[in-house]
């Protein structure tokens, strides 16, 4: 079972890239972030034409998340991160697919920092910690994946000294992510590639992709049930070099059958 995550940075603007990638790599499950489209503008028909069912939570102009499956049924579990009934941003979607609970998330960026956006990010991370603990308590296979907007360590960023004041790399943000992982989650890419340089995002400016000046901010966190089923993981970094592409590249894992 191949599961992928991809921040598409505007699903309708990047639709040709998304469809090309889906047809080329054929992942079984795909979590998308930053749809930048209201609910009614999600391109369900075009995605169905290349063989995928979809569950989505849109939002006008910003945010938005979706889960696609190639064959398996999707059973929706929830479409908000618990803990703040006044939070209207579309950043979380949860579903059961093939016996695995999948949480697709788009964690807030937090910039400019300090400020209200960083405060919102840290509150969101606290809510995620609380909810993640309840998911672990269910004692079932769980995947939390998406754009976490967190650079976990210095090895996950090109020239870390340039990111010291950025909300993706602030000590309190990295500590919150570490606290989350230490609940009992496995960082899938680092489990298989503990020392490798594996970026998932390259800015559009200053030819960052050409210079490989990237960040690793798109992550897969796995519950203990999936540790022994993890057989492969990677980044489809060549997609970042396609014309009119997202500033993120797709990230994926492969799990053995039970």
List keywords for this structure.
Endo/exonuclease/phosphatase, double-stranded DNA 3'-5' DNA exonuclease activity, 14 strands, alpha+beta, 6-stranded mixed β-sheet, metal ion binding, globular, 6 helices, Deoxyribonuclease I, Chain A, DNA binding
- Kindly name the structural category: alpha+beta
The major beta sheet can be summarized as: 6 strands, mixed
Unreliable stretches? none
Tally of DSSP β-strands: 14
Label the overall shape.
globular
Secondary-structure element series: EHEHEEEEEHEHEHEHEEEE
Number of helical segments? 6
What is the level 1 CATH name? Alpha Beta
Domain Endonuclease/exonuclease/phosphatase: 4-248
EC number: 3.1.11.2
Binding site for Mg(2+): 7, 34, 147, 149, 247-248
Site (Transition state stabilizer): 149
